[in-house]
Design goal:
63 residues, 2 domains, binds zinc ion
Amino acid sequence: MGEYTDCPNCHEPTPSENLNCIYCGEVLNKPVGTLSGLRYSFKGWLAALIALAVLAGFLALIL
Ligand SMILES: [Zn+2]
């Protein structure tokens, strides 16, 4: 309560319960480190793979 986080973009103090900076809209509490980034991109790849699998299954049904 009443805690402020410095925005990584504009360095203005933004209430830490905010998801975005109230000044510039920068996303706060970003995942830090490559591990989180990898997990996010892995999610994207997984979604793409599932979409491909569904498409392949659909094609197999038609052919
Ligand atoms: Zn900002």
